[in-house]
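New to this. Please check this protein:
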Amino acid sequence: MAATKTNKRAIPGVVNVNQRIVTRETTRTKAIRNQTQLDVETFRQLSQTMKELKEEMEAVRGRLLHTLQATNQQRILSTDGTFAVSLKERSNWTYSDELEDRLTMLKAEQQNEQRKGIAITTPTTYIDGRTVTA
């Protein structure tokens, strides 16, 4: 059972009311709220760090791509030989106008089924953190 204190104080407009303060629950609630705020702040800081690292990674990636292409190399090893950066290529397909038209019609049919409630949605739950403007 939670430890309690009783505070008998008259409240204006109300006949004497016993106000009970449940200290253990209050302490537990405060601890959860504090941890939640710490988690939110940590999430914000990590999000900012990831954004900065992604920007830095893109700059380094661009320099390495330029170096690999300029020197006609396919791979560069780290000094100790434990990490390699390789030049890769991926195909990007361009389709005929006929097929593109059919794909456009198919997308329109998908949207139509969504509006009519025929298509079934399965939600994905995730955490998103964003800067809030005041």
Summary: The chain has a mean pLDDT of 85.
